[in-house]
Specification:
- The complex is a heterotrimer of chains A (515), B (368) and C (432).
- Chain B is an alpha/beta fold.
- Chain B has twelve helices and twelve strands.
- In chain B, the strands form three sheets. In chain B, strands 2-1-3-4-5-11 form a six-stranded parallel β-sheet, sandwiched between helices.
- The N terminus of chain B is likely disordered.
- Chain C folds into two domains: 243 residues, no CATH class; 69 residues, no CATH class.
- Chain C has 17 helices and two strands.
- Chain C has a two-stranded antiparallel ribbon.
- The longest helix of chain C has 27 residues.
- The chains are: A alpha/beta (515), B alpha/beta (368), C mainly alpha (432).
- Chains in contact: A-C, B-C.
Chain lengths: 515, 368, 432
């Protein structure tokens, strides 16, 4: 591989923000036709480096040199880098939901005929581009009506519309399920065979190991090393070692579960979709949770796990149809989130930025937000009690922030997640439902979150973990339910759980009992 | 120990501040000036405040200019203010208060809402300023000193008479179909104009010689809020649709020129022949319209004369005299009968326009 | 050197740690000083200060309610019309049904509550955007005002006028000042000192080092100085005038609502709903109830403002309330509230409203016409918000802002990086 010609070289890139050195002397060599992975913990400087490359931070705002196709380039803005064939696809997709696929693909780049947009040509060209990325849809379909996986493909098709030479993907599979991820990775392999160079930023080390030719590891704004996957015999542990700077013996803390009696039970749970009432999102689902137990919910994206969790949590999703909730042997009716909180339920949402936190708040106000009654008398808040509560959780969970007055928007994903956990621990729940608790969090912080989850279980609480990462469920949970299309399709004990079994049950309606 | 120092510092600072404040603001202000009205006049270069309504009509703009120049010529300092376009009442209240603060000796007010200024007039009075209501009588206040205006009842009578004369000239015999418009209901004058006109028209209506075809004769139905042209135009549009599908409209009583032109625009838009339309204020566009044979008449209440009269009153107040008034009975503002000086209005049609505007530098040339 | 640093860090912080808000206080002081010089001392003369409060208290009362509406992520365009509608009904109730004026005030507040419940119902329970509901309300209640009042002006009795143009009465010995105003000022001074010591105590309980004593003293001295100055000014107004009754109503509302928004669960919920309504809902906040409350509260305050204006004008007229919503909204945004909701303070809005009021007053004292005043006010609004947006985009605060950033703790805050820069406050360590 390393005999390929060099396409891009970034030489000693240094980028400073007021008071922070985001990048210090970073070097990157990308060869034509390879898939080059950039890995590093959150905050290591990966995205900043890509913003320097794509002209988001224009020439002059950083030190160092970018040599592209043999000549030094000085991009003044994104347009300049796109004209040179460098296209970046961000983690947050830049599509307009209310526009069609074709409109999105050609947004800002519309084919024209006598001044007017030539939609016939646009649709024809769109079909061609869509075929190249393996997207079979009507180009007139609105983007909001297709899944996240397909939206990602639209983004890539959009890149091809601009004659891309170097494709940069920032966490392309973060929001995708296994099948869509696989499809995307295959697509990247196809590009490689056609000579298109890709740079991929990802946290998913198994994917990187599977697809990348070269891996550059960045830590604290510096290049640590560049590994050749084949030549150096790189595996996940090797990458992790580079990222965290030391050996990581285990990805999960040791834990001996102390499981008690069943205390929480959902029976025959039926819920309909909030808008299209004919769609049933929860079909007669039943499950139990024991004290001290960590229960996993595995399923593909859209299987209805989040919907199940949220509808149980005070009917905060969908239209309740039938079903009972039994806690400590008594039936309880939870008509609102306030009811659910009062009965000791807590739900940590999968999207902490959109619905988990108020990003305008500081750590202090976020921590107490779900149970203000605990720090107030007659509705009047006790500032000191609030501070003390937030501070004690900050210490306990080791949230990295100078003070609890820090705004949550300034925290990294891992620390934000700790604040959300603190917020729900503060409500003294008996049952915590954690929806994708480690999404977008780097390796080190994940380890800590797992530890917190285990400690909560050891306190005799029941914990439900919804996750799309099978290794996480297998490593963390005592028991795993599989969900497929709104139905619970299986229940697997820890010792029987392996990815193959889970995957099989996550993709079929046949009930299997392996307990 | 440090705490003690801190506290004593605080106390010291407070004491110091209190002292300075006391030293510079000792006792109560505002007792100066001729609050009781027993002093004779005031300095010849005193400030005279003039608060006028928003610039919705040429007349107010002209009046403002005349006041600025006239007061300057008379040796006074002047502060001429217009109310804003939307927040008229609040603006005028604030402006009058500011004039009082600045120590104006006489405040001339062309009120936006005649009933909502009593607090400010009282404040002016208490501060020793004389208040002259200009053109519009300020109601419900015992603190208003003088009122100067054209004889508005007379204006209405002239409009009514001209309407009858104009229709007769076009069509010797009745019955005539007419429609009635009146001004903003919050303007005290609007009712006076209307009553004056009805004083002439009512006998004819009772006789059946003149017919208000829409039957809208109540002042509440005919009023145009805020003297707004678009309001008059919209009302005329509706009248034409509802009443004059197959009927001839012979005359429209319009209280002023702005509304008259809006009414004519509406009628022209509907493709009807222009009836006899009255007006008032001698606005440039209306004089042109009269000369072109569209609007029938207007009233010349020469703003120059009114401003001149007002300034004359200010001057005699300055000298410590009682200004000349010619009506001490008719104008009761709800709290007292206000001493009033009334100027006579003149009706102007195409026939006498050249003569009426002979001395007017702006309107005179239009009549040639 | 370190003293200067202490000063920078602590003096202007306290409750108003918002940089924007401090910027506005600074601007307000600057504008006052400029006009004080420009008008040869008229601006701070007692009669002008009294007039300033009298003229603007109703707008500032609206700004209180508007702040809460905007923080919750809504807007209310109907306040002027509601004020006018209530005004005419209250005036009529006294003129035609001869309600005694205290009953009429109550009647007005009830009308406000009913209107508020109507609008709150549509916003909170039906889900019609507040912009639309209140746009409809603007037309509805303006029309209602004209329908009921027939566009006439209706006078109100003397007693009722107290809430709009009354003053603290003269009692006690002749001190050359209005005694009640002096007492009010004294009470305010005591409150300021008490609060400062309370704040120090709270900080100690929060394991934080309180600001150095001399800074507390300086801060108290500045505030006490301002209060002493203001109360002497108000107390030395022409006999019969002193601190206006409408100002007292305003003051009471500001204190009560500041406490409500800052220190109670209900107030916290308004910010939560405006910051992220879905997150608030999933934290157990009763979204509908909060939205209903802010809309209803606004209508009640609008009614109160309308009555104060009628009382001040001695009559209810058809022009009442025209354009008030814009003044109130402008005050709130100049005072640092975010258009998207979730951010803003009562005190900030009051300062924002005062900036506009002083500007208006000063320009009028200078004899600048309303046309130009409007142009200047428009530019000030634009500029104030633009500076804020610009600073946010730059990811740093203004020089003034940096003075105020961290009153709360003595640990220096980390340098602020651009929001989009990937940065972890401290790197997470992995136990081996």
């Amino acid at each position: 591989m390393s005999d390929l010609p060099v396409l891009l070289e970034m030489r000693s890139i240094t980028k400073e923000f007021p008071g922070v050195k985001a990048l210090a002397d970073v070097n990157l060599v990308v060869r034509a036709g390879e898939i080059h992975a950039i890995v590093g913990e959150n905050g290591a400087g990966k995205s900043t480096l890509m913003k320097v490359l794509s002209g988001v931070y224009p020439y002059g705002s950083y030190d160092g040199q970018i040599v592209y196709q043999g000549a030094e380039t000085r991009f003044s803005d994104i347009r300049a880098s796109e004209n040179a064939g460098i296209v970046i696809i961000h983690q947050e997709l830049a599509l307009i939901p209310g526009m069609s696929i074709a409109e999105n693909i050609f947004l800002g780049n519309e084919p024209r005929k006598r001044g007017a947009i030539d939609w016939k040509a646009a649709n024809r060209m769109a079909l061609d581009l869509m075929a190249r990325v393996g997207l079979r849809e009507d180009p007139d379909t609105l983007v909001k009506d297709i899944g996240v996986g397909k939206q990602q493909l639209v983004e890539i098709a959009k890149a091809f519309a601009k004659d891309v030479k170097l494709l940069i993907l920032d966490e392309p599979t973060a929001a995708l399920n296994e099948a869509d991820s696989q499809h995307l990775l295959d697509l990247l392999r196809g590009f490689r065979s056609r000579g298109i160079t890709s740079i991929m930023i990802s946290h998913k080390l198994n994917e990187i190991e599977a697809i990348a030719d070269q891996i550059t590891i960045i830590r604290d704004g510096r290049t640590v090393e560049t590994l050749d996957v084949k030549a150096d015999g790189v595996d996940e542990d090797r990458i992790v070692r580079g990222m965290v700077g030391r050996e990581l013996s285990s990805r999960f803390p040791d834990h001996t579960p102390k499981i008690g009696e069943v205390f929480f039970e959902v029976r025959n749970w039926n819920v309909r979709h909030p808008i299209s009432a004919e769609r049933q999102v929860c079909k007669n689902e039943s499950f139990t949770v024991r004290r001290g137990e960590i229960v996993g919910f595995a399923g593909l994206m859209g299987a209805g796990r989040t919907e199940l969790a949220m509808s149980v949590f005070g009917r905060s999703y969908g239209v309740y149809e039938s079903g009972t909730i039994i806690k400590d042997g008594k039936e309880i009716v939870l008509k609102s989130v306030a009811d659910a909180i009062a009965h000791g339920l807590a739900y940590v949402s999968e999207d902490r930025k959109a619905i988990g936190l108020n990003l305008l708040d500081d750590i202090k106000t976020s921590t107490v937000a779900a149970k203000l009654s605990k720090i107030s008398r007659h509705g009047v808040l006790d500032e000191v009690a609030e501070y003390q509560a937030a501070e004690s959780y900050r210490r306990e969970l080791r949230t990295k922030a100078p003070t609890v007055d820090e705004g949550v928007s300034k925290l990294s994903g891992g620390n934000q997640q700790k604040v959300v956990l603190a917020k729900w621990m503060f409500t003294d729940p008996d049952l915590l439902i954690l929806d994708e608790p480690t999404r977008g969090i780097d390796v080190g912080a994940k380890y800590e979150i797992y530890g917190i989850i285990q400690r909560l279980a050891d306190q005799g609480k029941g914990v439900v973990v919804i996750s799309s990462e099978l290794p996480e469920l297998i490593g963390l949970c005592d028991r795993i339910y599989t969900v497929f299309e709104g139905t619970i399709t299986g229940e697997i004990a820890r010792q029987d759980a392996d990815p193959e079994t889970l995957m099989k049950q996550m993709t079929s309606t046949k009930k299997m009992q392996t307990r | 120990m440090r705490k003690l120092i801190g506290k004593s510092m605080a106390i010291g600072a407070i004491a110091a501040l209190a002292l300075t404040a006391t030293a510079c603001g000792n006792g109560r202000e505002g007792d100066t000036g001729g609050a009781k009205g027993d002093t004779k006049g005031f300095a010849a270069d005193s400030l005279i405040g003039v608060a006028l309504p928003s610039k919705t009509s040429e007349n107010w703009v002209l009046a403002g200019d005349l006041f600025t120049n006239g007061l300057k010529e008379a040796g006074f300092k002047s502060d001429v203010q217009y109310a804003g376009a939307s927040t008229t009442v609040a603006d005028q209240q604030a402006q009058i208060t500011a004039m009082v603060t600045k120590g104006a000796k006489v405040i001339v007010i062309g009120a936006t809402d005649a009933a909502q200024l009593s607090t400010q007039v009282a404040a002016a009075h208490a501060a020793g300023a004389k208040v002259i209501a200009y053109d519009r009588l300020i109601t419900n206040t015992p603190d208003l000193d003088y009122y100067v205006a054209f004889d508005n009842f007379k204006v209405g009578q002239l409009q009514g008479q001209a309407l009858l004369d104009g229709m007769k000239a076009k069509k010797p015999n009745g019955p005539y179909n007419i429609e009635l418009f009146s001004g903003s209901p919050d303007d005290n004058n609007a009712g006076v104009f209307f009553n004056g006109a009805m004083d002439v028209l009512k006998p004819e209506i009772d006789k059946g010689n003149v017919v208000v075809a829409s039957k809208q004769t109540d002042v509440k139905q005919t009023a145009i809020q805020g003297w707004k042209a678009e309001g008059a135009q919209a009302r005329m549009d509706q009248l034409l649709t509802s009443t004059y599908g197959n009927k001839e409209l012979d005359g429209v009583l319009s209280p002023n020129d702005t509304l008259a032109r809006a009414i004519i625009t509406s009628i022209k838009g509907a493709g009807k022949t222009i009836p006899v339309v009255t007006g008032q204020d001698s606005e440039v566009e209306s004089v042109k319209s009269i000369m072109a044979g569209e609007q029938y008449m207007t009233i010349n209440k020469d703003t120059r004369n009114l401003v001149k009269q007002t300034i004359a009153m200010v001057k005699s107040l300055q000298a410590g005299n009682t200004p000349e008034v010619n009506d001490t009975k008719s104008y009761n503002n709800g709290a007292k009968v206000v001493d009033t000086y009334l100027l006579p209005p003149v009706a102007v049609t195409k026939a006498n326009a050249a003569e009426a505007y002979a001395n007017d530098p702006k309107l005179g040339p239009l009549t040639k | 050197m370190s003293r200067i640093k202490d000063l920078q860090k602590n003096l202007f912080g306290g409750t108003t740690s918002n940089a924007r808000q401090f910027g506005m206080i600074f601007t307000l002081v600057l504008i006052v000083l400029i006009f004080q010089i420009w008008t040869n001392g008229l601006t701070l003369r007692s009669d002008n200060l009294i007039a300033l409060f009298n003229q603007n208290s109703y707008i500032l009362i609206l700004a209180i309610g508007m702040l809460m509406v905007i923080v919750a992520g809504h807007i209310d365009l109907s306040v002027g019309s509601i004020a006018a509608f209530t005004g005419i009904l209250v005036a009529k109730s006294m003129a035609e049904w001869s309600l005694p004026w205290p009953v009429a005030i109550l009647f007005g507040l009830v009308i406000g509550a009913i209107i508020g419940a109507w609008q709150g119902f549509w916003v909170a329970y039906v889900g019609v955007p507040a912009f639309i509901v209140t746009l409809a309300g603007m037309l509805l209640f303006r029309g209602g005002n004209q329908f009921i009042g027939n566009a006439n002006t209706i006078s109100v009795p003397e007693g009722f006028r107290v809430i709009g143009s009354g003053f603290l009465p003269e009692v006690g010995p002749d001190t050359g000042y209005n005694n009640l105003t002096l007492l009010l000022g004294l009470a305010a001074c005591v409150a300021v000192v008490w609060r400062e010591f309370q704040a120090r105590k709270t900080r100690r309980e929060m394991d934080a080092e309180p600001a150095p004593m001399w800074i507390s003293v300086l801060r108290m001295a500045v505030m006490v100085g301002v209060i002493v100055f203001a109360s002497l000014r108000f107390a030395s107004g022409r006999v019969g005038t002193s601190f206006p009754v409408s100002g007292i109503i305003l003051l009471a509302l500001v204190l009560a609502y500041s406490f409500y928004t800052r220190n109670t669960a209900g107030g916290r919920h308004i910010y939560a709903v405006g910051g992220n309504s879905r997150a608030a809902e999933l934290s157990g906040v009763k979204l509908k109830r909060v939205n209903f409350f802010v809309m209803m509260n606004m209508a009640i305050l609008a009614s109160l403002a309308g009555m104060i204006f009628v009382a001040r004008s001695a009559a209810s007229g058809p022009q009442d309330g025209n354009g008030w919503e814009l003044d109130a909204i402008a005050a709130v945004f100049i005072g640092g509230a975010a258009v998207a909701g979730g951010i803003g303070t009562i005190s900030g809005s009051i300062v924002g409203g005062l900036v506009m009021a002083v500007l208006n007053n000063g320009l009028q004292l200078q004899g600048v016409g309303t046309d130009k005043v409007q142009i200047i006010k428009g530019l000030v609004l634009l500029l104030a918000v633009a500076v804020d947006v610009y600073n946010k985009k730059q990811g740093r605060f203004s020089i003034i802002g940096s003075l105020t950033r961290s009153f709360r703790r003595d640990t220096p805050a980390p340098p602020t990086a651009p929001p989009d820069a990937e940065r972890e406050t401290a790197r997470t360590a992995v136990p081996s």
